[in-house]
Amino acid sequence: MKIVTICGAGIGSSGILKVNAEKALDALGLSASVVAADVASVRAVADDANVILTSAEFVEAIGDTYAEVIVIRNHFDQGEITMAVDRALGEH
């Protein structure tokens, strides 16, 4: 399993999302690699991703992908991120 977090430069909000996605995985007892990237390199980084976490403004730039693209409204809301990861990767 692979989660990619996307932002404009690949260091700010994607880094925050990466850390919080890793916390969500730990809390849920799930295992996945989490990679932070900038929107310009999304094609190379996310070609094998299961989930892409990002802000609404970058969804269009991601383009066609097999990954589930999830918009995170508040990058600091651990509950929102945990629920998103659980919906995408958890057992249903």
UniProtKB/TrEMBL annotation:
Residues 1-92 form the PTS EIIB type-2 domain. InterPro entries: PTS_EIIB-like_sf, PTS_EIIB_2, PTS_EIIB_2/3. Pfam families: PTS_IIB (PF02302). The keyword Protein biosynthesis does not apply. Keywords: Sugar transport, Transferase, Transport. GO terms for molecular function: transferase activity. It is an enzyme of class 2 (transferase). Its EC number is 2.7.1.-. This is PTS sugar transporter subunit IIB.
